[in-house]
Amino acid sequence: MRSVAVIGAGTMGAGIAQVCAQAGWQTHLFDAFPEGLERGMNAINEFWDNGIARGKTTSEQKEEWSSNINTFSDLREAVKDVDLVIEAVPEIMEIKARIFHVLSIETKEDCILATNTSSLSISDIASASGKPDKVIGMHFFNPVPIMKLLELIKHDDCSEETIAIAQAAGEAMGKTTILVNDVPGFATSRLGVVIGNEAIRMLADGVASASDIDTAMRLGYKHPMGPLELTDLVGLDVRCDILNNLAESFADESYRPHPLLVKHVEAGDLGKKSGKGFYDWTSGEKVERDGA
């Protein structure tokens, strides 16, 4: 593996580009919007600067890793001649299908095409690519530079070679990989969003405060982070999309996002990235929010 293109410079895409650069690969970070690229690179540099301040990394390492990342606003140029493409755009099948159609034309024949989707059908995405044997799910977790798990999702037409390359890439990025079949929600999202949705229901029902619900799961079940804080970190809009995808895939309305989640999304309260979600993040720290 020598070169990787990451499609989308949002929270996940920027994190994926960061770990690719740290793995020593030439990393092409693409976003259709200049402001998206700027935010993504700012997030990467802020992470490295914080690491330097804490003594976890050095200025020399940051300089080396930075030299591995180049930004692109032209998709075709970004994916030209790379060995691996990792798509990290919003959880909307139509957008992903359009991108994979372009990738099927603009990437070299042996390029592996991965999607970071957390709930959509890998088989459906692969069918838009023209080379389904080269397509695999690579589901990273937020924050990507810290979370060690990488969920690999295989579909019926995915080749063993593609799986092996994805596993090796994950290990090079310092991840522990698991391999699951292409079913709605895979292994992690299916569990995670249901727990989060129930926590939102409990908050709406007045069972306990957001911080007490989160503390219950952290101390009672040894979760590293409570479900409401995690929802704020992942993004309320992302969680809403995943739940709707599961409801439609299983034809089961019990997966639908709770009305309180929908209300926050419609108000633009998307979690940490927007400043408010189930907590208030405007100060840079997590603060209990009245009436959340």
What would you note in describing this structure?
This protein is an alpha/beta fold and 292 residues long. It has 2 domains: 3-181, NAD(P)-binding Rossmann-like Domain (Rossmann fold, 3-Layer(aba) Sandwich); 192-278, N-(1-d-carboxylethyl)-l-norvaline Dehydrogenase, domain 2 (Orthogonal Bundle), CATH 1.10.1040. It has helices at residues 11-22, 34-53, 59-67, 75-79, 93-106, 122-127, 160-172, 188-204, 210-221, 227-234, 236-250, 259-266, and strands spanning 3-7, 26-30, 69-72, 84-87, 112-115, 135-139, 149-154, 176-181, 279-280, 287-288. Strand 5 (112-115), helix 6 (122-127) and strand 6 form a beta-alpha-beta unit. Helix 8 crosses helix 10 and helix 8 crosses helix 11 (236-250). The longest helix has 20 residues, at 34-53. The protein starts with a strand and ends with a strand.
Characterize this entry briefly.
This protein is of the alpha/beta class and 292 residues long. The protein is 48% helix and 15% strand.
